[in-house]
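Person: Please work through this fold.
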Amino acid sequence: MSTAAVPEKAPDDSSKLKTFLSILRKFVGVADIASVRFSLPAQLLEPRPNLEYWNYLDRPETFASIGKSDDELGRMLEVLRFWFTKDLKYIKGKPCKPYNSTLGEFFRCSWDVNDNIPEEQNLPGISSNGSSSVQDGDDKVKVCYLTEQTSHHPPVSAFYIDCPERGVTARGFDQISAKFTGTSIRVSPGQHNLGIFVNIEKRDNEEYQLTHPDAHLGGILRGALAITVADTCYITCPKTGMKAILQYMEEGWIGRSQNKLEGVIFRYNKDKDTVTRIKDVPESDVIARITGSWHGKIYFTPAGTKEPSLLIDITPLFPVPKNIPPAEEQLSNESLKFWGDVTNAIVDKQFGQATKLKQDIEERQRERAAERKEKGTEWNPRFFTGAVTPLGKPELTEEGQKVLQGIRSGEYTLTESTVKGA
């Protein structure tokens, strides 16, 4: 057996964190380490592409169930239920660092789900048997997902989610800003990340904007990484005139983390929206209140009532596996194939080889960027109309629309792009 084929000793979590921390210390005081795009050695990475890892569909059935309620409050609560389940990976597993996405890299997948929610979690406007005016039976529905890295500086990706049977779509730009404080990493939405925009076609195209709160990656010094949130986020629907404020509560210094949150759903003035704090919402405008733990059970209490009702129980839920295209039908810049050799090397514990392959990819990116600059060539995304436009709400190109149709039908055949960023 050759020396190159001998697996290297896998670093334990303690040595990983020490190495990670030594690298991070170089960035104390840097305004945004996410924009620096520093390269980590392969042994510190999760062997997964960022575009495959980062999506908001850990429980796609909650997305598919949006819009079923005939009641405006019911639909806002459906959106909230999707919100609380979209990132289970950070609740059920350890935070990790996947590969940085490359320009032109893309990922597509789907889920086949039953969008029936347990009876004890029925919402206003849904009968006890789960029916509503847009309920189409108990057959499985398909949720489709397409994302593409549309910008490298700053690093931005666009995404589009579609549940055609329910007429529900979502889109947005993903971009984060990160700062190392010396004890934790504060992660915030970047300037092009205005949140998730959910549209319900069968409800007169109601649109909901869901903004992201700041989060902290803590536990670096003690070797137990964990995500904490102590910030406020908002969900607004101009068509119904409803707004939700969610306040994630800051944890105390002593005692076990409770991950508590509270919130309020209320009528707001869409032309003069100035209310940003729960305590500033007039009692006469309150429609419902939200309480609970974003790691456990979350309840809603309609105005004028005292008995809370269960909105969602996170405790038994785990991320749902994706349906992905067959390997032979994936393109060379499709995430799983693009990073396949690096992933295989990490899985085989060939960390030196994995790091070299990763560095080769990064060098090719720099060379192609230099070539475009020298030729004055502008790079354009393949599946979305702009790198960071329209502001907050990316639109699909004609080819992007065809890709989504292919995901729906299971037809994954695509031709290699003539303009490759990756």
User: Anything to note?
Assistant: The chain has a mean pLDDT of 88.
